[in-house]
């Protein structure tokens, strides 16, 4: 019976009187069980009704709004009525299987406690209610559940369950408030909770400058996040070292909320401040940038990094101080641990802005303290740490597993080139700003240079080219420069210009030459003995030379293609300019005489029209090439935030969006699927590893890269088979996994035996894929890269959940993106459309309210299911395969 513990939070089931409130689901404010020392309970008017239901019907379902205190109420009632009965605490929706109820020993008595019954029904369907009906028919069996939506209560299957439903009001009655005053001496407890001591008033959570900025907006006027950010910067232009003073905030765009709504979201994102501290303006700006990506983009990476550095270096006790003391620039591991948002996923982002680094250097130099030993024998905590300089990380200095991901991607691409020579491939490196996309591109370039058969690398900074004319022109110039460096410069330039002259221009040149001959031949017999003869010669040559000069000048404009003017004239004077350009691009690629690797960076900083025009140019002019014998491959790697690219296409083709009849997809997501063969997320450290990694980094001696444990783990992985390597990797501590990720990725992904093993274990998932020839190959590539990324993050996700998550991302990308952002939304399946949160994209409503059979199969597959915890692990938000103590 031990295997039943997978459906229940505690196994074997304890008696009700021994259950910790935290394990029962009561919001105790603690991260884990801490005993039964709870705040005084305010008796509810429905307590007696619930007790009578348990005595007479042995079942009760409490219907209420979230935050009404139902869990605490049921906890107290069960301890009064059934304290010595064993209680089965169902796990979260997606983790509880109602089939396990039929496998229990029917001789004993037990209470079944299910929170969020509606969410469980969305995952399990009618079989859940059938299992519960069977459960309550048994002797000495009790059922206790909560329902936070009324849709389930109206379901016919629920009516057959025939259990009493008790409504629990969200507010407190007059009698309950009287009891509250008797217990707490006041009635300031939050109405929606009613069971915990009062929190500090919301305004007291923020500094004076934040309250002043918020107070400048009247009443419940809905404003954008950018409007509040602009007001804060106007009051404090010194934020981010003054970098925000020049920013044009998009105050008229984006979601609108009352200012109290924005401050509430900021508090939820930042967490409550510690005692004696407040949330200051810098923290509010950082949180707003996270809540509104458009605002974050307008502020820029440099300003955001400076804000993080300033926010981490000083904490205002009650009001912000405009002048920070030198000591406030000292960085400690604790300051990072207290603010997870201030941690980035790469070593580069740990450093502060140049201004704060200079101040830090000055403050550290005269007063740097080395750690010592306290009189009691314990090691004193280091007050100041060495300065971390924001140097560019090379392939030999990476400690976050990204070089392993880059090597895995290079292996995949070279395999494709060998299998399909002469073809073109587009790869998408996906990640938000500042996550290390450019670092992955640089690693790809450096790895290619180390290869025995290097490709021709062409680098293209899209953001710098936004004002350089049409995207195809800047692409052509970048490719031309790289190829010219490989060939004879002047000769190559002449050959290229000659190719750009079409038949009409060659005819015109021939006619001009003929005219020149006709003019010069009669002059050949002229004797230059008199001034009259010279005048005759000049009269014939000057018009000819002028005509030739004008022709050459005009021709140069057509055949140079090195300026916007020449590009415009080229397009205007060709009957089919795009076809001519495609032929010329193909010729240039052929001149490389080896595969070409085009690295496109910073596309997610470009305006929407440029994004679309650039990708269209790559698709039409470079990728759609004729498959000629002996042609070399073209590999295009684009680093950009996928949301930015998708929204660009969504906005551009908004009128056509109604024609897309596929729930869970948009015009933009379909374009992304069509454009890119592989999409690779950027590795990132989970929240629980960030502070641990930074502490290790700061405490380490300069030049020392790995802990002894990581070195030992690397040695153990070297000669292990893929299956054994996964087992060894799972046994290690997460931080050691990150440091040994390069070797782990090699054994799990890039090695030849690993590739064979991957194809073998993924074959059972082929029926879940679309019936297209390329679906399986793309699925294997996507899974392999996702395995490499998760391994780089120190996570060991099971084959089944990771394969199912890859299928979900491939077939329903919008749904996967939404579940990644809000994993708890997995409990929304089968709810009514009116119960979906406003943040859910409209296109997802059909998938949630009436999931198609193929989606049900993926979400509830025997190798899964894809529940909340699995989604967090597969998407890199939580560490999978954590070693138990």
Automatic annotation (TrEMBL):
The keyword Transmembrane helix applies. Residues 367-381 have a biased composition (Basic and acidic residues). The keyword GTP-binding does not apply. InterPro entries: KAP_P-loop, NTPase_KAP_P-loop, P-loop_NTPase. Residues 416-788 form the KAP NTPase domain. Keywords: Membrane, Transmembrane, Transmembrane helix. Pfam families: KAP_NTPase. Residues 309-384 are annotated as: Disordered. The chain crosses the membrane at residues 506-525, 537-556. This is KAP NTPase domain-containing protein. The lineage of its organism: Bacteria, Bacillati, Actinomycetota, Actinomycetes, Streptosporangiales.
């Amino acid at each position: 019976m031990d295997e039943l513990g997978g459906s229940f939070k505690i196994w074997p089931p304890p008696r009700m009187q021994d259950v910790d409130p935290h394990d029962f689901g009561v919001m105790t404010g603690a991260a884990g069980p801490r005993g039964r020392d709870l705040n005084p309970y305010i008796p509810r008017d429905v307590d007696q009704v619930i007790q009578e239901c348990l005595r007479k019907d042995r079942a009760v379902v409490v219907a209420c709004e979230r935050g009404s205190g139902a869990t605490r109420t049921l906890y107290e009632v069960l301890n009064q009525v059934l304290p010595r009965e064993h209680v089965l605490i169902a796990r979260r929706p997606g983790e509880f299987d109602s089939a396990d109820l039929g496998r229990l020993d029917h001789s004993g008595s037990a209470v079944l406690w299910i929170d969020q019954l509606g969410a469980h029904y969305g995952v399990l369907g009618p079989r859940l209610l059938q299992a519960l009906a069977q459960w309550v028919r048994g002797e000495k069996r009790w059922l206790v559940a909560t329902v936070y939506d009324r849709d389930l209560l109206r379901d016919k299957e629920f009516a057959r369950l025939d259990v009493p439903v008790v409504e629990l009001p969200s507010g407190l009655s007059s009698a309950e408030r009287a009891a509250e005053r008797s217990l707490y001496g006041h009635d300031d407890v939050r109405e929606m909770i009613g069971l915990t001591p009062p929190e500090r008033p919301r305004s007291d959570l923020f500094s004076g400058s934040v309250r002043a900025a918020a107070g400048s907006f009247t009443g419940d006027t809905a404003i954008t996040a950018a409007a509040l950010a602009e007001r804060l910067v106007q009051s404090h232009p010194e934020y981010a070292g003054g970098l925000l003073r020049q920013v044009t905030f998009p105050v008229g765009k984006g979601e609108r909320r009352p200012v109290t709504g924005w401050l509430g979201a900021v508090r939820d994102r930042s967490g409550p401040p510690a005692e004696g501290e407040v949330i200051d303006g810098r923290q509010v700006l950082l949180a707003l940038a996270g809540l509104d990506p458009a605002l974050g983009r307008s502020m820029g990476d440099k300003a955001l990094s400076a804000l993080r550095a300033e926010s981490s270096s000083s904490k205002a006790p009650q009001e912000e101080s405009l002048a920070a003391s030198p000591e406030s620039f000292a960085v400690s591991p604790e300051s990072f641990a207290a603010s997870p948002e201030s941690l980035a996923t790469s070593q580069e982002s740990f450093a502060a802005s140049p201004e704060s680094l200079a101040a830090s250097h000055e403050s550290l130099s005269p007063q740097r303290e080395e750690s010592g030993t306290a009189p009691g024998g314990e090691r004193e905590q280091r007050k100041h740490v060495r300065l971390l300089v924001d140097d560019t990380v090379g392939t030999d200095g990476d400690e976050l597993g990204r070089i392993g991901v880059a090597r895995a991607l290079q292996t995949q691409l070279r395999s494709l080139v060998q299998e399909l020579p002469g073809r073109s491939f587009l790869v998408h490196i996906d990640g938000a700003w500042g996550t290390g996309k450019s670092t992955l591109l640089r690693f790809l370039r450096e790895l290619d240079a180390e290869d025995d058969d290097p490709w021709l690398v062409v680098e293209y900074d899209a953001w710098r080219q936004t004002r350089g004319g049409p995207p195809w022109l800047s692409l052509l110039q970048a490719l031309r420069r790289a190829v010219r460096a490989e060939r004879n410069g002047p000769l190559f330039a002449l050959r290229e210009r000659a190719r750009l002259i079409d038949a009409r221009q060659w005819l015109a040149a021939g006619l001009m030459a003929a005219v020149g001959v006709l003019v010069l031949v009669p002059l050949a017999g002229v004797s230059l003995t008199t001034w009259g003869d010279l005048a005759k010669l000049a009269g014939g040559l000057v018009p000819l030379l002028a005509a030739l000069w004008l022709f050459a000048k005009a021709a140069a404009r057509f055949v140079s293609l090195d300026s916007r003017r020449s590009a415009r004239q080229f397009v205007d004077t060709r009957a089919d300019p795009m076809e001519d350009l495609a032929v010329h691009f193909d010729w240039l690629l052929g001149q490389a005489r080896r595969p070409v690797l085009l690295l496109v960076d910073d596309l997610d900083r470009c305006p929407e029209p440029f994004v679309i025009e650039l990708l269209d140019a790559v698709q039409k002019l470079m990728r759609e090439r004729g498959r000629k014998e002996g042609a070399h491959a073209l590999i295009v790697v684009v680093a950009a935030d996928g949301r930015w690219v998708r929204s660009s296409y969504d906005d551009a083709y908004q009128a056509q969006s109604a024609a897309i009849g596929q729930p869970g997809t948009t015009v933009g997501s379909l374009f992304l699927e069509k454009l890119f063969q592989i999409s690779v997320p950027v590795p990132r450290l989970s929240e629980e590893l960030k502070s641990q990694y930074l502490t290790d980094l700061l405490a380490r001696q300069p030049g020392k890269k790995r802990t002894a444990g990581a070195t030992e783990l690397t040695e153990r992985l070297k000669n292990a088979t893929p299956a054994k390597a996964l087992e060894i990797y799972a046994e290690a501590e997460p931080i050691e996994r990150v440091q040994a990720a390069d070797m782990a990725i090699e054994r799990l992904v890039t090695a030849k035996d690993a590739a064979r093993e991957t194809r073998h274990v993924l074959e059972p998932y082929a029926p879940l894929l679309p019936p297209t020839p390329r679906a399986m190959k793309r699925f294997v590539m996507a899974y392999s890269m996702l395995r490499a990324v998760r391994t780089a993050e120190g996570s060991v996700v099971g084959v089944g959940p990771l394969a199912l998550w890859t299928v979900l991302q491939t077939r329903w990308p919008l749904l996967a993106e939404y579940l990644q952002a809000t994993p708890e939304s997995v409990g929304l399946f089968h709810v009514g459309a009116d119960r979906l949160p406003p943040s859910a994209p409209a296109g997802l409503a059909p998938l949630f309210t009436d999931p198609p059979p193929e989606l049900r199969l993926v979400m509830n597959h025997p190798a899964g299911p894809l529940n909340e915890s699995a989604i967090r692990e597969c998407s890199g938000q939580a560490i999978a395969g954590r070693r138990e103590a």
